[in-house]
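User: Second chain of the day. Same drill as before.
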Amino acid sequence: MRNITKLIIIMMIFVAADMVAQQISSSFKIARVKYSGGGDWYNDPASEIELLKYVQRNTNLKVEPVYEFVDLSTDKIFDYPFLFLTGHGNVNFTDSEVRRLRAYLQNGGFLYIDDDYGLDPFIRKEMKKVFPDQEFAELPFSHGIFNAHFKFPNGVPKVNEHDGKKPQTFGLFYRGRLCVVFTYETNPSDGWAPPDIHKTPPDKRELAFKFGTNLIVWALSN
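Assistant: Same format as last time:
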């Protein structure tokens, strides 16, 4: 059984090694993470499309504004440089999903997690399985992700009020590289959704798009 597990991990690493080469020859796309546990991983499917349209208009990046999702139980995650996870409720990763996600992040992949309200305690528990030796660390306003394309001198903007607490951005690292970003008490992805969905004010939608652009630029350049 131990040999089979080692073989699976080696295969995942080989697949991950091809990830960068595949990305160079194709347009950038975001993949929504499908997870088990009962949380609504699928909510607001137009959000990524609207964000990528914004990136297309405001940067020189070659992007493809489409909605796609991946199941962590498959090697399809290695086809995308950027994964996006959101929802309101429970999250549960199986042991094989934990190993696959860890291999993805250790080989150049990037995961953005946005708490859509109620996700926080569950995602912290599951990401602890991925990086057992780390806790989410709050990113200082001086971190490069807040200046990757647009400037956010006060950190992540407050897009959704939620509980009225200050917005926070947390990170997980692998060998010094920021590979997981988690936003809490702000919910930028609500601002990416079409304006009739959440009635987000235009100025907050603009800030949400700009922050999302920074995430993408950072993920592709670090």
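Residues 202-221 form the longest helix (20 residues).

User: Great, on to the next one.
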